[in-house]
Amino acid sequence: MAARPIWKGQLRLSLVSIPVELYSATKSGAKPSFRQIHEPTGKPIHYQKVVEGVGPVDKDEIMRGFEYEKGDYVLLTDEELDAVKLETKRTLELTQFVGACEIDPIYFDKSYFVVPSDELAEDAFRVIRDALRQTEKVGLGQLALRGKEYLVAIKPTGTGLLMETLHYEAEIRKADPYFSEISDKKAEKDLLDVATALIEKKTAKFDAEVFRDHYQAALRELIERKLKSKGRKITAKEEEAPARPSGENVVDLMAALKQSLEGSRGKARTKSSSASKSKSKAKATTRKKAS
């Protein structure tokens, strides 16, 4: 495996402990990254750690401090922080199980692949993986990682397990202040029927490959154009801001929904027709080959 594990430890279910490794499920270098550049010299800008009245300081003079009162800190060394004994530093114990759809998506944060450390661990690993899949449950536990203890969820994915870090309840904002002024009045049935039909027409199996990050693609194209132009300034075409509907220009919601639905049906017919033509051509080709 090319990547290095970000954590090694034990995945525990009751008295069963399995040596596992964690790998990040996302790639950090997939998008262009920028640095701040000093324009007159073209050199990158670096940052110094400074103390007011002292100036730049050396790295070995820096400690971590917790501000217990305004301007007063208790200082902690790396050794003191490492000495904090947490079982979750080396053990991820599954202490509770919930239905796979019970966790609100707002709680999910980052994803990691969980794999057995060696072949000897695979038998027990497969048992937990398949048991979670069969019961359609998600295992919950806690894990100390990079100076923080996370609430995590474990679920099967492919032949392995996926661990997702979750936000704690205290980290989630309450929705009431944002939604309190929105009426709880139900939508009109005829409008709801058309909107539901439109959703059904556009429903398909999720495939992440269908979607592209258009901004990143445009950004890479801009970088290529800039390189080819040898640094000359490139001006973007100005886009007209969409006109906001006025009192006389309010869109008829029902008409808009019906038009969207008809457009969706038209696309579906076009795709179906194209598919039929392709099949007909394929059959004709097959007949010619056969003859």
Automatic annotation (TrEMBL):
Ku domain sequence ranges: 54-183
Keywords, comma-separated and alphabetical: DNA damage, DNA recombination, DNA repair, DNA-binding
Superkingdom of origin organism: Bacteria
UniProt cross-references to SMART domains, sorted A to Z: Ku78 (SM00559)
InterPro entries assigned: DNA_bd_Ku70/Ku80, Prok_Ku, SPOC-like_C_dom_sf
Coiled coil: none
Membrane spanning residue stretches: none
Family to which the UniProt record says this protein belongs: Belongs to the prokaryotic Ku family.
Complex formation: Homodimer. Interacts with LigD.
PANTHER family xrefs: NON-HOMOLOGOUS END JOINING PROTEIN KU
Protein name: Non-homologous end joining protein Ku
Natural source organism: Devosia nitrariae
Gene expressing this chain: ku_2
